[in-house]
C-alpha cells in the first residue's frame, strides 16, 4: 500500500467540526479512533460515544465536559509544549457535551470496547512523566492514558515530546501480533504537532517499515503540525525531530486482546541501541516540563 494510505496531512481527514477524524471505518481496522476538535470562544459540541470509550484531552485551552451524568471542568494548558493537561473519560453509549468559554483544541482519543466504565476526571498532577532513552534518543512520555495508570477497557493513549534534533520511537518496534507475555496486537495512530522556530514552521519525519504481518505498512513521511500517521502493523520508528523544532506526538492504541497491555518487540537489527543508553547521559533539555497540580476539578454543570 502507498504512503498516502497511512500518512494524513493536516486537513486531509477533516470532517464537520473535526480538524481530524479517524475511526475504524476510515482506517480500515477494528478499534482505534482519534478526533481533533477546534472550538471558538463560547462554542460547544455534542456527540454520541457510541460503542467506543473516549478520553477528552486538551491540546490548547480549557473546556467543560459533561457525560455519563457527570460534569468536569478541565483546566487544560496553553499548548502541548507548556505542560501536562488534565483530562476526562467518557464511557461508551454516553451522550457527551464539550464546551469552552475561551476556545481551544481538544483531542478525543477513542477505542471500541465492551465494558461501560464510569465517567471520570484525570488530574494533571496524577499523570506520570517518564524520561526514556538517552543522548540523541532522549524523549519525554506523559503517560496519562497508559495501561496500569488509568483504567479503561481497551484504550491506551500517551503523549511523547522529543527535543529538536533527537530520534524518538527508537529502536523501531512493533506490536502487530499476539504473543502471550511478549507482544500485544495494537492498532496505533500518531498525531503530530511541531514547535516553530521564530516564524519558521516545524517539521519532522516518521518511518514505518514492513514486518511481514498485516498490510505491509511502508511509510517515510515528512510530518508537520496537524498531520497523522496510521500504523495498523509494521516496525515503527524513528520519529525524527528536525533541529530547532521540538516534536510532540499523541499515540492512540487499541486492539483485540483481552488484556489491556502495551507489549512491544524491538527490531532485531537495531535493538542493541538500548544497551548503549546506560553509557550516555540523558539530554539535559529534558524534561521539557514536569507534572503539576491541575487547577481543573469536578464541577457543576455549565461551570468552566
Write the layout of secondary structure elements.
Layout: E1 7-8, E2 18-22, H1 24-27, E3 32-39, E4 44-48, E5 52-67, E6 70-77, E7 87-90, E8 95-99, E9 104-112, E10 120-122, E11 129-132, E12 139-145, E13 156-162, E14 167-168, E15 173-174, E16 176-179, E17 183-185, E18 187-194, E19 204-209, E20 219-223, E21 228-231, E22 235-241, E23 247-254, E24 265-266, H2 273-276, E25 297-298
Antiparallel strand pairs: 1-21, 2-3, 3-9, 4-8, 5-6, 5-7, 5-8, 5-9, 6-25, 7-10, 11-12, 12-13, 13-23, 14-22, 15-24, 16-17, 18-21, 18-23, 19-20, 19-22
What's the helix-strand series? EEHEEEEEEEEEEEEEEEEEEEEEEHE
Helix content: under 10%
How many helices? 2
CA-based gyration radius: 18 Å
CATH structural class: Mainly Beta
Number of strands: 25
Q: Label the structural class.
A: mainly beta
Shape: globular
CATH superfamily: Jelly Rolls
Mean pLDDT: 93
CA distance, first residue to last residue: 45 Å
Kindly report the CATH topology.
Jelly Rolls
> How many separate domains?
1
Oligomer: single chain
Protein name: 5-deoxy-glucuronate isomerase
EC number: 5.3.1.30
Keywords: Isomerase
Pfam families: KduI
Explain what this protein looks like in three dimensions:
The chain is mainly β and 304 residues long. The protein has a single domain (3-284), classed as Jelly Rolls, CATH 2.60.120.10. Helices cover 3% and strands 45% of the residues. It contains two helices and 25 strands. It has helices at 24-27, 273-276, and strands at 7-8, 18-22, 32-39, 44-48, 52-67, 70-77, 87-90, 95-99, 104-112, 120-122, 129-132, 139-145, 156-162, 167-168, 173-174, 176-179, 183-185, 187-194, 204-209, 219-223, 228-231, 235-241, 247-254, 265-266, 297-298. Strands 2, 3, 4, 5, 6, 7, 8, 9, 10 and 25 form a ten-stranded antiparallel beta sheet that branches. Strands 1-21-18-23-13-12-11 form a seven-stranded antiparallel beta sheet, with no helix packed on it. It starts with 6 loop residues before the first strand and ends in a 6-residue tail after the last strand. 49% of the residues are buried. It comes from Streptomyces boncukensis. Pfam families: KduI. This is 5-deoxy-glucuronate isomerase.
